Amino acid sequence: MLEQLRDHWWWRPGVRPGRRVLLWHLLVEERPELRALVGKFRERLTGLPGLDPVPDQWLHMTTQIVGFADEIPGAEVDAMVSAVTEEFRSLPPVTVRVGRLYLYDEGVAVGIEPERALDPVREAIRTCVARTVTAHQLADHPDWTPHVTVAYSNSDVPVVPIHEALADLPAPCELTVHQAHLVEQVRDGHLYRWDPVTTVPLTG
User: Fold this and answer.
1) Tens digit of pLDDT for each residue in 148-166?
2) pTM of the model
3) Which among 3, 42, 127, 196 is least buried, having the fewest CB atoms inside 10 angstroms?
């Protein structure tokens, strides 16, 4: 049982201010019902110390970190995108229910049900990354629990007040994943920002 969150904002190996990371996200910018749900979670966490809420613009579901952008040649990026496009031709859009509380070591999030419903999307991406990218980071992130982070912790934060604030959860919503987004992400203070590279649809 998780008793407290720890600071999310430590510098991971190789990460430094301004250095960009290439990764795949499932973005929620076009899903007002999910933004509204996350907003209700944020409201209930208002006033709790040690939490950095994620603004609507930067809500995301990290699906696979590829590697540092300065280590991956453009030709490998193109090959990866082509491979993912081909793999996604056999995968249809996936509908999940979003709304269960998910606490992990460094943040408060909303999770999905069925929890493993998006695994084929991630596995397709990982297969393509392994086949096309030399300096990838697949071994660093072998496991995945799909979630949208509501707030990152910036210190040691006890979880009991979080559970109390979210004892009566807002009603969940449905989310249909139609595409995956390749982005270049950078850490900006206690926030992640990114520039889009491309979007690949699920067309199966």
Assistant:
1) 999 999 999 999 999 999 9
2) 0.94
3) 3
Domain boundaries, the chain: 4-201
Summarised one tens digit per residue, pLDDT across range 175-189 is 999 999 999 999 999
Looking at domain 4-201, which of 3.90.1140.10, 2.60.120.1440, 1.10.260.40, 3.20.20.140 is its CATH number?
3.90.1140.10
Q: What is the DSSP string of 123-175?
A: HHHHHHHHHH-SS--GGG------EEEEEEESS-EESHHHHHHTSSPPPPEEE
Per the listing, tokens 């995968």 go with 91
